[in-house]
Amino acid sequence: MTRVACAQYAVRDGDPDHNLERSLHFIWRAATEGADLVILPELANSGCDLGSPERALDLAEEIPGGRTVRVWKNEAEGSGIYVVGGLLERDGDTLHNSAVLVGPEAFGRYCKTHLWDREKLLYEPGREVPVLDTPLGRIGLLVCYDAWFPEAARTLALEGAQFICVPANAPDDWVPERQRRGDLTMLNVHCIAAANANRVFVAAANRVGDGYLGRSCVVDVTGGVLALAGATEEGLISVELQLDRAHREKRLTDLSHAFEDRNAAVYKGEAREDR
Known about the structure:
Layout: E1 2-8, H1 16-32, E2 37-39, H2 53-59, H3 67-79, E3 82-91, E4 94-103, E5 106-111, E6 131-134, E7 137-141, H4 150-158, E8 163-168, H5 186-198, E9 201-206, E10 208-209, E11 212-213, E12 217-219, E13 225-228, E14 235-241, H6 245-248, E15 251-253, E16 256-257, H7 264-270
Parallel strand pairs: 1-2, 2-3, 7-8, 8-9
Antiparallel strand pairs: 1-14, 3-4, 4-5, 6-7, 9-12, 10-11, 12-13, 15-16
Helix pairs in contact: 1-3, 4-5
């Protein structure tokens, strides 16, 4: 069994020292409570409202040589936990909204491929969605708005991901108040849909404070919600997962299979550029 935790807390825009301290607090707390992996929010080093590209470049860090990754890696190796967290990354003068996985025996990096609104004016999108091999299992990374695109989660699942981690800074779900679904946000709904459609585990760690929605979640391969955080409070949610279920439970009935039932010929027709 693998115990997974999502750390839900307020990230302070433009204050990397404070943000590093808060991330370390939750990494330490997750490790103390027996978690094997902890997920932190999107842009956990910098926050997302940074004022200007110049300010963003000042706050961004190289990966893997930047301070935050080095400190997270030291903490992970010291406690034996794996850490997934969002980072503002710079590569020369190019900015990425990235996520990393660091741990005692693994490292991986992912650049957000689906950029929301004015992120398009600041970041260069990633070009692939890799699956990372770790001692815990095969892990895929997405960042916030990526989860709104079924193709991203499906690509990870087809490449053998058992578990998809989603650092997030979701401030709204763009659903009229009268039409909302109780405690679930659209971030939760997309995680549920991705888990159910692909028979993988999905977990999202969302920011709180300053209008951010919270509701971090861990979702079972069936689409069932195993853990759901509140809308405003900081804290950890955690649950034990049997990750090999993501391989074993692709078959739904004797005659139905999550992947074998795909009709690829139809999908190719839908993808034509000239429609």
